[in-house]
């Protein structure tokens, strides 16, 4: 049994599932082709689908048996061979990052505290939310729809001038 498993590789279960799916699919397909029954087309399609599904198990078996040499497993990204070049790029990256931070990539701490104090003062101007109205604020809410409805004066149209919608 050990000799048989050695020839099949590490993924013996996937191999036998692929063989089983192929055998069942081929059997169902051939029954649908050669037997004179009224649902032969169903058997033909079902057998084809089962054979197609066996491809999944064949792919599992194949990819599970790919062997990678130990030297390539030690360095899976390719950085050990060119350590000097990697160190150079890392140092250049750190220098660029430091220079961007010092030139204004980040806000100084004084600006951060000023903005937070402004946010706290604007929060104090709001009313305390109650369970009935969780979004209550002191100032009236100005929305686009409120400003449009206050500016537009709607008057009834004169029947003599509105002739576009008349049906005769």
Count of helix runs? 7
How far apart the termini lie comes to 96 Å
Relative helix content: 55-70%
Number of strands: 0
Radius of gyration: 38 Å
Question: What's the pLDDT, averaged over the residues?
Answer: 73
Return the structural class. Answer: mainly alpha
SSE succession = HHHHHHH
Report on this structure.
The longest helix has 25 residues, at 40-64. The chain contains 7 helices and no strands. The radius of gyration is 38 Å and the shape is flat. It has helices at residues 2-8, 12-34, 40-64, 70-74, 83-105, 109-124, 144-151. It starts with a helix and ends in a 17-residue tail after the last helix. The protein is mostly helical and 168 residues long. Helix 2 (12-34) packs antiparallel against helix 3.
């Amino acid at each position: 049994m050990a000799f048989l498993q050695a020839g099949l590789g590490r993924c013996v279960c996937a191999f036998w599932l692929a063989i089983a799916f192929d055998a069942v699919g081929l059997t169902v397909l051939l029954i649908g082709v050669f037997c004179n029954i009224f649902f032969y087309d169903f058997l033909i399609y079902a057998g084809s689908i089962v054979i197609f599904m066996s491809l999944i198990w064949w792919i599992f078996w194949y990819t599970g048996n790919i062997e990678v040499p130990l030297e390539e497993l030690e360095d899976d990204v390719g950085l050990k061979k060119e350590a000097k070049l990697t160190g150079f790029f890392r140092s250049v990256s750190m220098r660029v990052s430091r220079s961007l931070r010092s030139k204004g990539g980040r806000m100084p701490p004084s600006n951060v505290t000023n903005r937070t104090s402004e946010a706290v003062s604007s929060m104090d101007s709001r009313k305390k939310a109650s369970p009935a109205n969780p979004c209550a604020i002191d100032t009236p809410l100005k929305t686009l729809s409120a400003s449009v409805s206050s500016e537009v004066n709607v008057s009834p149209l004169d029947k003599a001038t509105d002739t576009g919608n008349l049906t005769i």
